[in-house]
Design goal:
Helix 2 links the parallel strand 5 and strand 6. The chain contains two helices and ten strands; from the N terminus they run E-H-E-E-E-E-H-E-E-E-E-E. It is globular, with a radius of gyration of 14 Å. Helix content is about 10%, strand content about 35%. The strands form two sheets. The chain has a five-stranded mixed β-sheet with strand order 3-2-1-9-10, with helices on one face.
Length: about 160
């Protein structure tokens, strides 16, 4: 299964469109929030999983979801309720409670791939306005037989 992970697009859908152009065909798009509507025009046949972020105030969507793909349990959240700009401690305990193998989150606008114990944490950064001189981008993840492979991809050069 091929999954595009993107977030923090903040009402700039071109990031999603450009990422899809780079990665198609994909089976699923996961949007980590702050740009709920930016992911609504995806190609037919592509599954969409998205959560609301702190800037999606007018949206009545879910703020977190748990899905199981290829035998892997994935917790998806924006991250603002877990103080992810400071550390992953609160999100780690939520992941344990949820029995998640992977946690996908956003909010910090910084790319993260970190394994804590047996739990893999992935933040795709921001597709619109990244921080710390990172390029705008996203993650392409493949799940096959319980094995996870992913990489960060750039949408443009960093602005620094």
């Amino acid at each position: 299964m091929k999954i595009l992970i993107i977030g923090d697009t903040h009402n700039h859908p071109m990031g999603v469109k450009k990422a899809l152009k780079i990665t198609m065909p994909v089976d699923m798009v996961i949007h980590t929030g702050d740009g709920w509507k930016d992911a609504q025009d995806i190609p037919e046949g592509v599954n969409l999983v998205r959560v609301t972020g702190n800037c999606d105030r007018s949206i009545k969507g879910e703020s977190e979801k748990i899905i199981t793909l290829e035998g892997v349990r994935i917790l998806i959240t924006h991250g603002h309720k877990y103080n992810v700009k400071y550390d992953l401690n609160r999100l780690y305990y939520k992941a344990l409670e949820s029995k998640a193998n992977i946690v996908i989150y956003g909010h910090s606008h910084k790319r993260v791939s970190e394994k804590v114990g047996d739990i893999l944490f992935i933040n795709p950064g921001s597709a619109w306005r990244p921080r710390d001189c990172e390029p705008p981008g996203f993650v392409l993840m493949k799940l096959e037989g319980g094995k996870t492979v992913f990489r960060f991809l750039d949408l443009a050069e960093p602005e620094c």
